[in-house]
Give the backbone structure.
Amino acid sequence: MTDWPGLERFLATDPNDVGCEQALEILHVYVEAVLDGSPSSAADRYPGVAAHLAACGPCDDDFRGLLRAAEATS
Amino acid sequence: MQPRGVSTALDSSAQDTAAAETVGLVSQGGERDAESAEWIRTLGSTGLVREQALARLHELLLRVARNELHGRGGQHPITGPELDDLAHQAAADALLAITGKLSGFRGESRFTTWAYKFVIFEVSTKLGRHFWRKPTVALEAEDWDRLPDRFGMDPADHTQGRALVDAVHRAVDEHLTERQRQVFIAIVLQGVPLDALVIQLSSNRNAIYKTLFDARGKLRAALAANGYLSMAADTAPVASADEDGGRRS
């Protein structure tokens, strides 16, 4: 087995991952689910989005940016 | 003259209510929905009311764009007037997109959260485009010796990892399609940001991600078959109907 946990993590794929298009389509809804509850409750409600954000850096950047912006106007 | 405040939504007319019902805001009730309804009413209005709403929204979008560009400072070298110019471009383009898609707002979130999504996306796209103004990589270069660094391997273990580097290289050559290989090399070996590769390949984020997702699954299977990795993870394909060739939605 490899001693490269980074490589193993990178190559692992989650079957729940909905991809960028679907995740970004409801990103505003997901962000408010986080704000109204918690990251874990949002992930329970939208597991496919959570799986995608965990694997896609650019979409996770967008999520974090939108969360910051929405928090600032809450 | 200042834009109308959100409190004016509380005495909205029947026309305003109809507009809000159209986007599903009335049934949710509360001040939060009143604010969203007010945005829809004023942006859907005409004359001075609309101009003031556009100015107010642009101001908010510009603030978000600036904050986002500053927040992603570790990912780009842009500063000063150039950063501010990029923020203005992102805000202006987002405002145009929002006004064009106003009927697409269904009241599933606050209006501002929905609207901010557009400017966040614009920032990502513009940073991807900006990467190629001063590219630090050559797409044709393939330096496989960088692979251990890319995955945080201790340099002291590089010799030990030589066999794995060779195995990954072989799996890439033997199991990936030309497109998957191109995307893997650019993102993993050369460190090209995914949004920058989207611009370079005239594609969209979902399609590039899907290409890399499929490549990851193939490589994992190949390395597992040769005893380098366990095959514990499920590798069902990511949901996608996109072809790798269109623009990001």
